[in-house]
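Encode chain A's predicted structure.
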Amino acid sequence: MMWFNNLFRSLREDVRRFLYARARRHVLVIGDSHIRVFEHEYFLWTLPHIRFDIVYVPGATATGVSNSKSQTNSARIFDEAVAAHTGELVLVHLGEVDTAYTLWKKMERNGGDVEKPLARAVRNYCTFLGALAQRKKVLVLSACLPTLDDQATGGDEVAAIRESVKTSRKVRTELALRFNAEVAAYCEAHGIDFLSLDADVLSADGLLADKWINRKWPDHHYARGPFARLLAKKLVERFKAPGN
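Encoded structure for chain A:
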């Protein structure tokens, strides 16, 4: 089976190189590790004329993206990527790290409630988006919703770290929805395109629907196949719209 997987990966990368060399449009995608979904082969089949250039910073946050001295150095990395890119469109995806983990850890460490850290995250992110929109056309993707259950155990290193957050997934999800709504409102007021996936991924109980949970291993990322298909479908519709 390993030989087949290696062959498939090799063929996929051959197809990617062939299509990217002939792409009519180059799109820069910046964000945290969730944007690695754009590596999925589904984008090659559904959007073969578009080259997605991915620049991700593990652990990048909405709070720190406008801070040149942030721990991840995401502000500098993204600024350099935007400056070097020749395409006119930048897709941005941040906020999951904040709403699922860092805002809650700050609250637990410093006391008080989550309102001030949330306001700061939204403010810093919107400051970044506003400045970016002066340089490029921008499409903001809504932050992913929490995937890890309460007291999740095992999984990757990030999952193990996030186990320390005591706040329930229901409450973390509600915060992520608020974050997305506030960023969307800013984008609408400032003429920045925003693509929300919240209605597509929520179940009736107000949590992320099971189909989006990564079942291979406890993981804070969406299941890559379903996520890729949803994003590709939404982007096909968006790119067909007038002016896009």
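The domain at 24-240 is CATH 3.40.50.1110 (Rossmann fold).
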